[in-house]
Amino acid sequence: MFNTPETLLSLAEVAIALAGFSAVVVVMKRTTSGKWTRGDADRFHGMAIHAVFAVLFCFLPTLINVLVQDPVGTMHVACAVLGVQIVGHCIGAMRLGSSGLVAKISLFVGVLFGLLQFTVFTDWGVQRELELYIVGVLWHILQAGILFVGLIWIAAERIED
């Protein structure tokens, strides 16, 4: 269904574009008030981190394949690394003071998804390693996009008529 190198390269390009948008956010935030709220700073850092991880995980299977030289083994190891990273990232983000209830619920779903990624490594009946891995990379891109929208969203009470 997927052509692995082309799909992952396309996802890396999207992640790099999201990281590029972070520069736009920095310029816009600095010119308007010059000050950042804790929530905005956490969203900005999260957006940049998710974009970087998305790019890293797009190239990780290629790097692992150099050492393992077995496509199935490569995907097992890549899924395990991605799963551990997602679980660790979600638990760390839950501990941030700016994470509200909705964010903590979505992060809990991320923990469950990260554990599902890790089950590929243990070979507990998961058959679609590549598709699950691509969905894991997309999770990072989606999170970066959501954080970007959260940064640029202007609340109705802040709009002057």
Layout of secondary structure:
Blueprint: H1 4-32, H2 38-68, H3 71-94, H4 101-122, H5 129-152
Helix pairs in contact: 1-2, 1-5, 2-3, 2-5, 3-4, 3-5, 4-5
Describe what this molecule looks like in 3D:
By secondary structure, this protein is an all-alpha fold. The protein has helices at about 5-30, 40-70, 70-95, 100-120, 130-150. The protein has one domain. About 80% of the residues lie in helices and about 0% in strands. The longest helix is centred in the first third of the chain and has 31 residues, at about 40-70. The chain is elongated. The N and C termini lie far apart (about 50 Å). About 25% of the residues are buried.
Main beta sheet strand tally, sense and closure? none
Number of helices: 5
Number of DSSP E strands? 0
| Radius of gyration, in angstroms, nearest whole number | 17 Å
End-to-end Cα distance:
51 Å
Helix proportion range: over 70%
**Overall pLDDT confidence:** 79
Strand/helix succession: HHHHH
Strand content: under 5%
Structural class: mainly alpha
Task: Please give the domain count.
Answer: 1
Shape: elongated
Low-confidence stretches: none
